[in-house]
Amino acid sequence: MIEQINESKAYIEQQLSGQLPKIGLILGSGLGVLADEIENPTVISYKDIPHFPTSTVAGHKGQLVIGELQGKNVIAMQGRFHYYEGYTMQQVTFPVRVMKALGVERLLVTNAAGGINESFDAGNLMLITDHINMMGDNPLIGPNVEELGPRFPDMSQAYDKDLIGVAKSCADELDLQLQEGVYVGNTGPVYETSSEVKMLRTLGGDAVGMSTVPEVIVANHAGMKVLGISCISNMAAGILDQPLSHDEVIETTERVREDFIQLVKKVIKIM
Ligand code: HPA
To answer: Do the beta carbons of residue 109 and residue 168 sit within 8 Å?
Structure first.
């Protein structure tokens, strides 16, 4: 795995003329527009990077955008890899390994998620304070590569307290409502049944989605500090009396993307 990471890293470094990124961004469904704000961008298609998988879902582009945002050197994934696409957990999280190898120490992970907490509304942004892995798999299963991280990584502060504090104060300054809660990671690709949503609420979940958990596990293994923001694109099944659709998810994320962009830009400036 180390060799593959280094080959990907070397390819990306070759494309860059300026500084190496220190902050990583993973942009979820409908949130990829944030990468358009990156200045002096170097854009690299996933298909050109050795060992990178390629992304298949509608609403996701498949490229890295590397450049400056708020004066910081950032690397953004415009489109991520999902477990439900058939990738292994190792493939899903490979880009996080490459980011770390490039020197990224802080990772901002975003997603679209269904709201489970009844006090939420579609269109809210939620700061992820913790997660519950319901995917029945883990990217760290298998022999541990000591150079990449410890065999038994601590996950007691998977989402960094200081970064959570930064995000909250940024939202305050912008006078922007920011919910907080626990993200539950399911495999998808189906949305949940109403009964599953009830169960997840009982278990302590506030929002549910089909990503993020694998990347955050690997980022913690690698010793990176993580901040997570969900866009509550819909209320999860059974909370409102209406069916869910991917179109609704995309429509809502488009509606709130200005708020989302403002918040992330302010956070990046400080983080
Ligand atoms: N469930 C799972 N994943 C999702 C949802 C949902 O309701 N909305 C957006 N991603």
So the answer is: no
* Residue 181 domain boundaries: 1-270
Average pLDDT over residues 108-127: 96
Give me the mean pLDDT over the 136-162 stretch. Answer: 97
Statement: residue 59 has pLDDT above 70: no
**What total number of domains does the chain contain?**
1
Domain containing 57 — which CATH number? 3.40.50.1580
Residue 103 Cα to ligand 1 midpoint, Å, equals 32
Whether 29 has a binding-site annotation, put simply, is yes
Q: Ligand 1 site: residues with CB under 6 angstroms?
A: 112-114, 191-192, 208-210, 233-234, 236, 244, 249
Average pLDDT over residues 30-53: 92
Q: Which two tokens stand for residue 96?
A: 């996080």
User: What distance, in Å, lies between the first and last C-alpha atoms of the chain?
Assistant: 30
Catalytic residue among 7, 105, 246, 248, which? 246
Q: What is the C-alpha separation between 231 and 111, in angstroms, rounded?
A: 6
User: Taking 70 as the threshold, does the pLDDT of residue 57 lie above it?
Assistant: no
Nearest atom of ligand 1 to the alpha carbon of 244: 7
> Kind and range of the H or E element at 4?
helix 2-15
Share of the chain above pLDDT 90, in %: 84
Q: Does 82 count as an annotated binding residue?
A: yes
Q: What is the ipTM of this complex?
A: 0.98
